[in-house]
Each structure stands twice: as C-alpha cells, then as structure tokens.
Amino acid sequence: MVLPRSFYIRPNVVQVAIDLLGKKLCTRIGGHITSGIICETEAYAGVTDKASHAFGGRRTGRTEIMYSVGGTAYVYLCYGIHSLFNVVTNAGEIPHAVLIRGIIPATGTDIMLDRTGLKSITENSGIGPGKVSKILGIHYSHSGIDLVNKPGDPEGPSMWIEDIGITVPSGMVETGKRVGVDYAGTDSELPYRFRIQIRDLPALRDQEGLK
DNA sequence: CATAGGATCGCCT
DNA sequence: GGCGATCCTATGT
Predict the structure, then answer these.
(1) What's the CATH architecture for A5-208?
(2) What is the pTM of this model?
(3) How distant is C1' of B11 from CA of A157, in Å?
(4) Using the CA of A44, which nucleotide's C1' is the nearest one?
C-alpha cells in the first residue's frame, strides 16, 4: 500500500521519522524501478530546530520546498557531491522534514550495480544518506516531487513510499544524536536519529512474509 | 559579483 | 583517523 497523505501530515515529525522505519522507499527514474527498506532516519523539526535548513522561518529558493504539504520530496545537494533525500511532513507552511539516512536494497539491484559500479549489492550498500540517493537514482533536481500522487507525466521521474506490512517493535529502534549538526548547539543533542540494526532484519522479513 | 561552507563518502595512511 | 573531491546555496559587498 502506498502511504497516503494522512501518514505524512501528522504534526509530530519525530513520530513520522520512527514510523518510516521498515517502510519501502521506491523510485522510478529513467524508467527503472528500484527500492529499499528504510532502516535509518533523522527528524528535522522546522523553524524551532537550529539543525534545520528552515530554522527561524528561513525561506530561500532551496528551502521553499520544505514549506510544501507533507508527502513532498525535499532533495538538496550536500558537499557539492551528494544528493540528500528528505520527506516533508506536517501541513503546508510548516517546514518539518525527515532525512532518510539508510535503506536495505530490495528491488532492482541490477540497476543499482550500474549506478554505483559496485561488484555486488549487499545489505550495507544503502547505508548513508548519500548512498540512498546513489542507489535509487535520486538527484537534487527531483526536489518537489509528490510522494502521494503520481506526476502528470507517466514517463517522468516518480517516487513513493509503501507500507509492506512490517511493524518495527519499539525495542528494536536505536535512538541517538543526529549526525553532522554540531553547529546547531544544544539542538545537536536532541535524540532525533532512529535506526534498526541489520542483524534484526531476519525477524522483520518474517513479518513481511506473513502478511 | 565574490566567497565561504556544507544533514558525505571513499580512499589513504 | 585524516583529508580531498566538488559545486550549489546563502550571504555579504
């Protein structure tokens, strides 16, 4: 089931970040469908969060997308090299977002090989926000794509997230500080990073099989 | 117009 | 554990 708008527009961005664990992030880029199970996320709490690009209500050409309605993709270029993929959450004009930091490759591993030049795709190949975009073919030019309604052009790039029947037990979710946001002062200490360990995957895959 | 710096990665030691 | 790659974005003059 493709996640509906109601999943994204919930007001608690931290809860959305946790609930995205175990969901399947899918893209159709250049006619190729690839996907992976989300295993690491970070929440960015908008205008009050010093680590957020929208802190203080900042609106620029880049961050404007963050003010879209929940269920919109926000992708930006980091370090001149990496496209980082985020999901905008909450109602319009409230710039909350969840950074997807890691996925376990699921569909289209042959395409991922082409995109990365790796010799093989493993469970680690999508760990790291830059790698997520690399293996899924996501580019910062895809910022603004709607994750709920398919774009008008059926041939164009498209991205969505599916519920595949996995429920991650809270005891399986590891919480920590966000990465690379030391400039945010005390906000860098917030426990807004969430991940599931690869060693716990077999149990989750069993759930998927039962559905 | 000029410039500094970044929600990273992979290779090197 | 350290560093270079690489370029857009934001900000300041």
Answers:
(1) Roll (3.10)
(2) 0.96
(3) 33
(4) B7
